[in-house]
Amino acid sequence: AQTVTQSQPEMSVQEAETVTLSCTYDTSESNYYLFWYKQPPSRQMILVIRQEAYKQQNATENRFSVNFQKAAKSFSLKISDSQLGDTAMYFCAFNSGGGADGLTFGKGTHLIIQP
Amino acid sequence: DTAVSQTPKYLVTQMGNDKSIKCEQNLGHDTMYWYKQDSKKFLKIMFSYNNKELIINETVPNRFSPKSPDKAHLNLHINSLELGDSAVYFCASSQDKQAGVFGQGTRLTVV
């Protein structure tokens, strides 16, 4: 069974700073998918970024980028120029690529952006 | 247009009751899911349903049952509700190996 670990329950940074959220995972699969989801106070789950394990290039989406280290089974999220609207719970998630398996989530990191 | 919609958004009910949460997706996805988010915000998959194949998380009590009248719907039925069932329930859908698209969640409170 896969496990996803987020070791930072809460982080707080000043607006405009860069912050990195850590995520490690454990799997015996060779091909899989990794995701970061954002959950603001509205409760909606919003996809931030997606990484396919067979792609060596790190995914980027505007101010969001990942550092994917397959050998180390690490998948950290970097948020540049952080904004007040980035305040949310962030969840790292794993999918084995089987489609119907669904997502295995970490416990989340509560990110607070201070003005 | 809402991609994945759940109703109701809030549900308060007494212990022992039976309730349902409806979920509909208009994305044409072939797989739908139910997740439970507990009071500590931990998300765990309960069910996935794909082409009439149901995959059940073994930790889910059999009081919970998904029902899919068609490919666009996956409703969640809960019998004999217990206090510990209080949580936020999310429906989601996905296609192939794409990321899941989530509904807005249903906050269930059992009193």
Whole-number mean pLDDT of chain B: 93
Q: Helix/strand-derived class of chain A?
A: mainly beta
Low-confidence stretches of chain A: none
SSE arrangement of chain A, N to C: EEEEEEEEEEEE
Please state the CA-atom Rg of chain B, rounded to the nearest Å. 13 Å
What does this protein look like?
- The complex is a heterodimer of chains A (115) and B (111).
- With 115 residues, chain A is mainly beta.
- Chain A is built from no helices and twelve strands.
- In chain A, the strands form three sheets. In chain A, strands 2, 5, 6, 10, 11 and 12 form a six-stranded mixed β-sheet that branches. A four-stranded antiparallel β-sheet of chain A has the order 3-9-8-7, with no helix packed on it. In chain A, strands 1-4 form a two-stranded antiparallel sheet.
- In chain A, a hairpin with a 2-residue loop joins strand 7 and strand 8.
- Chain A is globular.
- The mean pLDDT of chain A is 94.
- Chain B is mainly β.
- In chain B, strands 2, 4, 5, 6, 9, 10 and 11 form a seven-stranded mixed β-sheet that branches. In chain B, strands 1-3-8-7 form a four-stranded antiparallel β-sheet, with no helix packed on it.
- In chain B, strand 7 and strand 8 form a beta hairpin.
- Chain B is globular and about 40 Å long.
- The N and C termini of chain B lie far apart (34 Å).
- Classes of the chains: A mainly beta (115), B mainly beta (111).
- At the A-B interface, strand 5, strand 6, strand 10 and strand 11 of A face strand 4, strand 5, strand 9 and strand 10 of B.
Concise account of the structure shown:
The complex is a heterodimer of chains A (115) and B (111). Chain A has 115 residues and is mostly beta strands.
Keywords:
heterodimer, A: 115 residues, mainly beta, 4-stranded antiparallel sheet, 12 strands, B: 111 residues
What's the SSE blueprint?
The complex is a heterodimer of chains A (115) and B (111).
Chain A: E1 3-5, E2 10-14, E3 19-21, E4 24-26, E5 33-39, E6 46-52, E7 60-61, E8 64-69, E9 74-79, E10 88-95, E11 104-105, E12 109-114
Parallel strand pairs in A: 2-12
Antiparallel strand pairs in A: 1-4, 3-9, 5-6, 5-10, 7-8, 8-9, 10-11, 10-12
Chain B: E1 4-7, E2 10-13, E3 19-25, E4 31-37, E5 43-50, E6 53-56, E7 64-67, E8 75-78, E9 87-94, E10 101-102, E11 106-110
